[in-house]
Structures are given as C-alpha cells and as structure tokens.
C-alpha cells in the first residue's frame, strides 16, 4: 500500500540503502534479451566510430547518442534464437558497444549526483561528489567512493555488462540524507530497484527492548512464520567474576558487562534481524544503556517497495511480529516474498512472447481477419504437449491448481 510520509516523524531510521537503475537504452535491451532474441542488423555507423578515448563527452552528445541507440533498436531486425537471457543480453550489449554503453551509465551517475546537489544542498554549496576508485566492484566495471560533505558515505558503480548503475549509501551517509527528497529523485530513474535497505530503531535508555528480551520473544514464536524455522545466534560477552571471595569454595559467575547480541535469519534468505547493545559498542558516556534493533532486507525473492523510503516505521514493524508493538500508531507493512516463482516466470514468458510475436499476431488478426484459435493452432501445431518454456518446467504450487486439476489461468 503506497502512502505519503507519516504525519508524525518516523522513529525508525534508514541505516543503509542500496539501489540500482539503468539508462533507458539498457532497459530496452533487457526487455529484448528476455525474448531470447539476438540482433541481426549491423550496428549504427555513429556507434562504430565511438571509442573509449571519448570519455569527456558532454551531456548533449551523450543524449544524442542515446537517442540514436533508441532509434536503431526500434528498427533492428532480430532473430528468435531462444538463447538464455544472460547470453542474449551480453550479445546485445556487445553489438552496440560496451564502451559507449559504459559511457551512458557514467553519464547517468553524473546526472544523479548533480540532482542530489540540486535537491539536497540547502545552502547552495554542493555536498555530494564521487571519487574514482581503481577498477570496479560488485560485478560493475567502474566504481567510485560516494562522498557527502567531503566524507566517505558509500559507493557508486556502473557498467553496461552488469546492467547499469549502483549506489550504496552507508549508515553515516544515510544520516545526511533527506529521504523524502531522495524519494522524489529516485522514482524518476528508469529501471529503479532497491536491492537492500537496513531499518533501525534506537532505545537510548535501554528500557523498551534488549537482545535478551528479543531472545525470549523468539521462544514465544514472535520471529517465526509459516515457512522453515529461522536461524538464530545469541552472543553474550563479559567477565567471569568471583561471586563470594570469603566462601570456602570459590564460585564464579558470568557477568555480560561487555554486551549481548541476538541475530535471527540469514542473508541468503534476504532478511536478517539484529539486536545489540549500541551504547557498549560505541562506549557511549551519554547513553551507556543504548539498545539498537535493526532489520536488514535484501531483494532476494522479494520486491522492496519505494514507499520504504517514506515510511520506515511501518516496514520495520511489519518485518516480524516481535517488532509490531515497538512503534506506536503505525500499521505494520509486510514486504512479502514472491509466493511462487512459477507465477513470476510465467508472467515474464508472456511479456517476452508479446514483444517477440505480438506484432505478427496483431497483423494476422486485424488485417487478415484470422481467428485467434486459428492463429494459435498455426503457431503451435508442430509442438508436442511437453514443448513448453524451460523456465516453466517445474512443480506447480498447489494453490495455483483449480478444482479440476488444471493450472489457474494467467489472464
């Protein structure tokens, strides 16, 4: 459910944010790659002349090159080769030129940083910049350190072969961000996707919650769902002290005065909860009992909604039942996993078929008056009952089956 920012100030803070996006040209290439097609048309002459030495191209020229690419792709002749998505995408990227597409990605990063300065620098002095690093990272061919007010605040990376651009903002960087304004910027980015967000709630007095209390809540089932039991780790550190020095038999006790931490979940599943004694970690004199609870959410088998930038309280509260009561006057919002990958793959197959064969079917139906049944028969009569897309050859979730045993229709 999409809503505006909460009327009350959010108590939950963003402690990490990572997202990706792509230039429009790459978005179109990804769509084409999903059809499994390869391009037969020779690359445009202007692209042939482009070389990596042209790194200082101005924005006007880059915009012109992007328009030329879009025009070339719109008139390109494709062959339905049925190749894997990654192979098809790699073929398309190399067809139009990796160096040119990398330059388009770099121009996207430059434009994004400039917009951050325009929207998030209230004094008029540019706060955001990036400093090139050696090589790439996370599979991208180029990378740089993101700086806010001249301090390290995260990383940016880009490269056409890995799909476009990446920005990761650290906890220190998140403190300097107005997330309502950031929301307005990123919602305009083509192919935008949040890949990770960390949400944190602080209890500076140490009375609302603790790692030990969360451990008890786990035993009450407040971190468990209907799936497999989550993993957990409980860490307690401190000193082994003598209890009674005057006793005939010396006895010792474990005093956890160095802190406790409690973890639920695993990164490979896409969601992790952490609770720890932040005051002891930071050796805070002002808030020695400071407790922190964090939820790390990754885009594995789930789509993280853009609304999480505006309403972190709701998504923190909805992450686990144990957290629902920690943030007052908030309706918890759950970020659900894709219930069945079959549905996702089926939808992608339909979209790919629409791109690859939609125009031909439209012509046959509207201009030659052939019935949908006859078109379907002509296009599938040579196929056997088991000749279906490889991605759909999997067991089907029981909930997708209708009462007569057939699969629930896609549309």
TrEMBL record:
InterPro entries: REP-like_C (IPR003491). Residues 193-329 form the Replication initiation protein-like C-terminal domain. This is Phage replication initiation protein. It comes from the Bacteria. The lineage of its organism: Bacteria, Pseudomonadati, Pseudomonadota, Gammaproteobacteria, Aeromonadales.
């Amino acid at each position: 459910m999409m809503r505006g920012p909460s009327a009350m100030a959010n108590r939950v803070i963003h402690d990490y944010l990572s997202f990706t996006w792509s230039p429009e040209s790459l978005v179109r290439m990804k769509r084409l790659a999903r059809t499994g097609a390869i391009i037969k048309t020779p690359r445009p002459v202007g692209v042939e002349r482009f070389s990596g030495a042209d790194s200082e191209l101005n924005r006007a020229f880059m915009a012109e090159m992007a328009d030329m690419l879009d025009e070339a792709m719109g008139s390109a002749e494709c062959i339905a080769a049925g190749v894997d998505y990654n192979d098809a995408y790699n073929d398309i990227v190399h067809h139009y030129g990796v160096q040119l597409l990398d330059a388009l990605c770099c121009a996207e990063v430059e434009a994004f940083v400039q917009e951050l300065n325009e929207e998030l620098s209230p004094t008029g002095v540019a706060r955001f910049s990036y400093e090139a690093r050696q090589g790439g990272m996370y599979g991208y061919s180029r990378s740089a350190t993101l700086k806010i007010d001249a301090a390290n605040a995260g990383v940016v990376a880009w490269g056409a072969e890995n799909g476009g651009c990446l920005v990761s903002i650290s906890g220190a960087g998140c403190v300097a961000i107005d997330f309502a304004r950031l929301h307005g910027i990123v919602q305009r980015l083509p192919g935008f996707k949040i890949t990770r967000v960390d949400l944190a709630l602080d209890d500076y007095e140490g009375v609302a919650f603790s790692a030990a209390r969360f451990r008890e809540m786990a035993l009450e089932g407040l971190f468990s769902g209907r799936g497999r039991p989550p993993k957990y780790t409980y860490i307690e550190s401190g000193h082994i002290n003598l209890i009674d020095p005057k006793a005939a038999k010396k006895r010792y006790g474990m005093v956890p005065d160095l802190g406790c931490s409690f973890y639920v979940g695993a990164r490979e599943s896409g969601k992790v909860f952490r609770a720890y004694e932040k005051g002891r970690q930071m050796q805070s004199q002002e808030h020695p009992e400071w407790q922190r609870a964090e939820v790390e959410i990754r885009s594995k088998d789930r789509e993280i909604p853009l609304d999480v930038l505006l309403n972190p309280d709701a998504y923190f509260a909805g992450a686990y039942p144990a957290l629902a009561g920690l943030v007052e006057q908030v309706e918890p919002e759950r970020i659900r996993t894709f219930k069945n990958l079959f549905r996702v793959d089926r939808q992608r197959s339909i979209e790919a078929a629409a791109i690859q064969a939609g125009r031909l079917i439209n012509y046959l139906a509207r201009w030659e008056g052939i019935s949908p049944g006859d078109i379907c028969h002509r296009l599938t009569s040579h196929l056997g009952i088991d000749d279906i897309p490889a991605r759909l050859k999997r067991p089907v979730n029981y909930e997708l089956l209708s009462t007569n045993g057939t699969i629930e229709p896609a549309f």
